[in-house]
Amino acid sequence: MHQATNAAGTADAAPRAASPRVIVIGCGMSGILMGHRLRQAGIESFTILEKAATLGGTWRENTYPGIACDVPSHNYTYTDEPNPGWSMVNSGGAEIQGYLERSAIKHGVLEHVLFNTEVARATWQGDAWSLETRDGRTLVADIVISATGVLHHPAFPDIPGLDDFSGAKFHTARWDHSVNLEGKRVGIIGTGSTAAQIIPALMDQVGRFSIFQRTAQWIFPLQNRPYRESTKRLLQRFPILTRWLYRWHAFWLEELFSKAVVGGGWRHRLLSWKCRRNLAQVKDPVLRRKLTPDYEPGCKRLIFSGTFYEAMQKPNADLVTEAIERIEPRGIVTRDGRLHELDVLILSTGFKADRFMRPMEMVGEGGLKLSDAWREGPSAYRSLAVPKMPNFFMLIGPHSPIGNLSLITIAERQADYIMKCIATIQCRRVAMAPKPAAVARLLADMKQAAARTVWSSGCQSWYLDKNGVPGIYPWAAGRFLREMKL
């Protein structure tokens, strides 16, 4: 905490009330959590603004077949809200959405939410924030907390003729459940983590499944098993077992996967061996070569699946590695001149992970726009705060360790840190923002650390920007957890 306070570049404005007016933007996993933390601290003078009609964020937006969390269910829970009733080791999206809804109701968060309220602009007025919504309302807050997440702006590919396709077409984050896929010729562009869930879920349903792969992915074998009813009853009866499961899964995330990508050594060798052994189940040598990445496991985001390779070996699977030249009404034309005729086109092309709260416009001290401050890419002090943006904090902001931990674990630690900042704002009657020099030093350290990670071993990914600055935390999870305690 002392580092954040010492890095504060603003200390001349004061909240107008002992209990500050707080606005939280977004009511997904982290927004619900922030509301709960505020209520725990006795702060009821807060409002959560949600652009959609319901809560849930990522789990509301994504409803595609096969959707599940790649973090074990018992680790993807709020620490004070265990769920002994998870149905699977890695539960599906609808089940997680239900968990979030129950949590929001139980902890009294829902009554603080304004739905269908999207923020267009937030301006620092010298002593408070003025927020303008797209429907013309103006709200005032002493403290603004962004809980918008990173997976809510779908990325669409820039392919000639994309709008010319005559069949059904949709992005995975805007799944069209009215489209009947039974026996159809289906094409999917992309082979990332979303596609790796969709492909096994649909392979036995569609007539032919054409998978257009630009880059092969490493797949870590994840066997998603259902929990027996007897196990769930045992966890219900003995809550300590649920807490033990949480810590067990957290241990493996922190000690294996986190350290494997940032520290290398035996952990990375073990991770690599597991991925390569998983790939070896592909019997056809030609198909196996197509599915073999030309970079080290962990350089790009690792995919977890125990069914992907099995699905790719089915007779109706068609892996296309030739580059796409254009899309026409009948399907996709690749550079070898082949027309892949399709009835349905699915875009599994991910999200604009660098958008965060944008397109909302933020104007801080001296009229500084966030878009100008982030011209070279998003940056923040400990992923939480931005220079010249007083009393503004972020959950799951730039450089969060999202590749190393459960997102709920990250958000909880960040929320606790933010609550310490709010306590300082209340007690000392100051406005807080990090100094530019503090952020610059941190980014330099992060760039140096990133050069020693597997992310710099020779691949292109969103983990590193054009200047080599990591978009995610370049150190082991343990360091992040220690820093958030300060």
Architecture overview:
By secondary structure, the protein is of the alpha/beta class. 31% of the residues lie in helices and 15% in strands. The protein contains 14 helices and 19 strands. It has helices at residues 2-6, 29-40, 58-61, 93-106, 193-202, 229-237, 239-263, 265-279, 285-290, 308-312, 370-373, 407-428, 436-450, 477-483, and strands at residues 22-25, 46-49, 113-114, 119-124, 129-133, 138-141, 143-146, 168-171, 185-189, 208-212, 219-220, 303-304, 317-320, 324-328, 331-334, 339-341, 344-347, 361-363, 392-394. The protein has a 5-stranded parallel sheet with strand order 3-2-1-7-19, with helices on one face. The protein has a 5-stranded parallel sheet with strand order 8-17-9-10-13, covered by helices on one side. A 4-stranded mixed sheet has the order 6-5-4-18, with no helix packed on it. The model is unreliable at 1-8 and 10-17 (pLDDT under 50).
Quick overview of this protein structure:
By secondary structure, the chain is α/β, with parallel strands linked by helices. 31% of the residues lie in helices and 15% in strands. The strands form five sheets. A five-stranded parallel β-sheet has the order 3-2-1-7-19, with helices on one face. Strands 8-17-9-10-13 form a five-stranded parallel β-sheet, with helices on one face. A four-stranded mixed β-sheet has the order 6-5-4-18, with no helix packed on it.
Write the layout of secondary structure elements.
Layout: H1 2-6, E1 22-25, H2 29-40, E2 46-49, H3 58-61, H4 93-106, E3 113-114, E4 119-124, E5 129-133, E6 138-141, E7 143-146, E8 168-171, E9 185-189, H5 193-202, E10 208-212, E11 219-220, H6 229-237, H7 239-263, H8 265-279, H9 285-290, E12 303-304, H10 308-312, E13 317-320, E14 324-328, E15 331-334, E16 339-341, E17 344-347, E18 361-363, H11 370-373, E19 392-394, H12 407-428, H13 436-450, H14 477-483
Parallel strand pairs: 1-2, 1-7, 2-3, 4-18, 7-19, 8-17, 9-10, 9-17, 10-13, 11-12
Antiparallel strand pairs: 4-5, 5-6, 14-15, 15-16
Helix pairs in contact: 2-12, 6-7, 7-8
